[in-house]
């Protein structure tokens, strides 16, 4: 019976002598010097890796404070203006309505995705809603984050100098617009980091993150979704054919779709689709306002070009000299620029802040072009950008938005005739009136644009009650009947949406309100059953009415605002049938 082999013993096979017919490879004997050299090379490789990591860390530690400081300096004027444009007023008023219990896309509506008003609401919850300075700080961080992401893309492709160049020129060009477009904490400013992050992730093959970033850009503003085009282009160019490409495509689309679907389920799919996609058809048409819109487009294109001269000059030079090597100015950058240009054109409005979407791809193309030129061109580009940025910052620091004083006067006039809880209606295109007056809106429609199709400042013939959004007028009338506003301010000042051209609003003003004053051309109406009040200076409504006639003669619209005989009171209009606004 065989016994077990003792532990540690040598088996018979191992103990058998080697067969001389079988040759075994002879392992070379390494000298001590060779072994030492091998160990040294390994240690040097480790040190080199650690040095590279530290060098990268040191690079960003040096660039980060420069970008933050430069962004803060170029946006410093934004902190000295209470409000820059109606977008800020719209977002601030929406944030207050949400904080008071409003529901997005039901009692708080706009043709925009929900992320920006929710951001405003969060900032107001933390720091109060009396000032926009928290949002201005967030705008500084958004621009800085965009510049750093652009720098990371440029550094990965062309080196350290290109990264720093792209970041600095991106920040300097970000203020190269009319101050009310460049300095405002608006949709485009908070959209930019998401668009840059989408391309940063796609450049590294992180397709899920790229799709999520595209969704974030879309949830700030619909046109932010245009960055999906260059992301898919990078995927097509950088992923092998077959299963790998299909998996990457599904990953991007899933990353893009999941946040949108989750938002729709949270806020209501039908409401979300209506207010962000299907309900914006009239907004994208400029019938009857062609010259007005094209003139604005030409002016803002010229202003943006001047603000980006430090990027445009080297790029044009490289293209003209045919130095645009595909290894540097790669097709994906041109596709990104073209997609951003398409987003600017969409809707045919050409507002100045729309052009900000061009900034990240243009900064990368400019930095890449400087890699193909002599160092002197870099000095020229930085100097040119610094000079133009200084001019635009100086413009912002020494200007006051023309509508701010008017809004403040209207806000004061309303405050003196109402209590903090009284609902008011400003009939106009400036929702900042509500925020400055600190009075709740009497309707979910914060501007006359949604009710009359006077969208984006157009002055064509397609303005009136019948051109408003479906169901908007029945909803407005129901809101006014359920809780009539104490004060209605007609701020149309001769525009095509004035109450004289809106029969239903005209009947309400004639039958239930009394004209009390004219403030900077805007007519203040107070309900006839409301008690008389005096303002903070002790003047009565009658005195304000007298003053209003004097102010009316200086109306910038050129009309002599004077007291007119009241029209006979019409009976209140019965409730209309028809589809109501999405709820």
| Uncertain spans | 1-27, 534-583
Rg, Å, rounded: 32 Å
- Largest sheet report: 4 strands, mixed
What structural class do helix, strand and pairing data support? mainly alpha
What is the number of E strands?
4
Please give the alpha-carbon distance between the first and last residues: 90 Å
* DSSP strand content: under 5%
Folded structure, characterized:
By secondary structure, the chain is mainly α. Helix content is 57%, strand content 4%. The N and C termini lie far apart (90 Å).
What would you say about this model in short?
This protein is mainly alpha-helical. The chain contains 23 helices and four strands.
Can you give keywords for this protein?
583 residues; mainly alpha; four-stranded mixed sheet; 23 helices; 4 strands; disordered N terminus; disordered C terminus
């Amino acid at each position: 019976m065989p016994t077990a082999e003792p532990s540690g013993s040598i088996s018979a096979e191992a103990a058998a002598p080697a067969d001389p017919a079988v040759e075994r490879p002879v392992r070379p004997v390494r000298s001590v010097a060779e072994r030492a050299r091998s160990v040294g090379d390994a240690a040097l490789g480790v040190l080199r890796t650690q040095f590279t990591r530290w060098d990268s860390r040191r690079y960003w530690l040096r660039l980060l404070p420069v970008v933050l400081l430069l962004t803060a300096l170029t946006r410093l004027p934004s902190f000295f203006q209470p409000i820059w444009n109606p977008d800020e007023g719209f977002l601030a008023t929406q944030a207050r309505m949400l904080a008071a219990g409003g529901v997005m896309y039901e009692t708080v509506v706009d043709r925009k995705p929900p992320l920006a008003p929710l951001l405003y609401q969060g900032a107001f919850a933390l720091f109060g809603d009396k000032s926009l300075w928290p949002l201005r700080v967030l705008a500084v961080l958004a621009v800085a984050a965009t510049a750093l992401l652009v720098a990371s893309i440029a550094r990965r492709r062309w080196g350290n100098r290109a990264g720093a160049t792209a970041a600095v020129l991106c920040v300097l060009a970000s203020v190269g617009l009319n101050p009310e477009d460049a300095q405002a904490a608006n949709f485009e400013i908070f959209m930019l980091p998401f668009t840059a992050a989408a391309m940063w992730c796609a450049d590294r093959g992180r397709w899920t993150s790229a799709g999520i970033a595209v969704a974030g850009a879309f949830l700030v503003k619909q046109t932010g979704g245009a960055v999906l085009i260059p992301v898919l282009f990078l995927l097509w160019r950088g992923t092998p054919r077959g299963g790998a490409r299909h998996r990457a495509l599904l990953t991007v689309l899933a990353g893009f779709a999941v946040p949108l679907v989750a938002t729709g389920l949270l806020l209501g799919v039908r409401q979300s689709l209506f207010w962000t996609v299907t309900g914006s058809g009239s907004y994208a048409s400029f019938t009857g306002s062609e010259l007005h819109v094209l003139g604005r487009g030409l002016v803002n294109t010229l202003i943006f070009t001047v603000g980006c001269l430090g990027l445009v000059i080297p790029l044009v030079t490289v293209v003209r000299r045919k130095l645009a090597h595909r290894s540097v100015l790669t097709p994906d950058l041109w596709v990104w620029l073209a997609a951003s240009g398409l987003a600017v054109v969409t809707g045919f409005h050409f507002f100045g802040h729309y052009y900000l979407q061009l900034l990240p791809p243009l900064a990368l193309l400019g930095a890449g072009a400087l890699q193909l030129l002599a160092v002197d061109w870099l000095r020229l580009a930085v100097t040119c950008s610094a000079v133009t940025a200084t001019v635009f910052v100086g413009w912002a620091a020494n200007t006051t938005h023309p509508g701010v004083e008017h809004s403040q006067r209207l806000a004061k006039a309303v405050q003196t005739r109402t209590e903090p809880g009284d609902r008011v209606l400003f009939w106009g295109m400036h929702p900042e009136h509500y925020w400055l007056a600190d009075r709740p809106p009497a309707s979910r429609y914060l501007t006359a644009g949604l009710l009359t199709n006077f969208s984006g400042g157009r002055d064509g013939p397609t303005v009136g009650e019948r051109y408003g959004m479906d169901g908007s007028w029945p909803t407005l009338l129901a809101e006014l009947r359920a809780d009539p506003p104490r004060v209605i301010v007609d701020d149309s000042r001769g525009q095509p949406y004035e109450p004289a051209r809106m029969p239903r609003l005209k009947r309400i003003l004639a039958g239930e309100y009394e004209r009390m004053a004219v403030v900077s051309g805007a007519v203040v109406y107070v309900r006839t059953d409301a008690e008389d009040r005096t303002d903070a200076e002790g003047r009565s409504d009658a005195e304000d009415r007298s003053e209003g006639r004097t102010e009316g003669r200086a109306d910038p619209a050129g009309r002599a605002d004077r007291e007119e005989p009241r029209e006979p009171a019409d009976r209140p209009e019965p409730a209309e049938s028809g589809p109501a606004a999405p709820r």
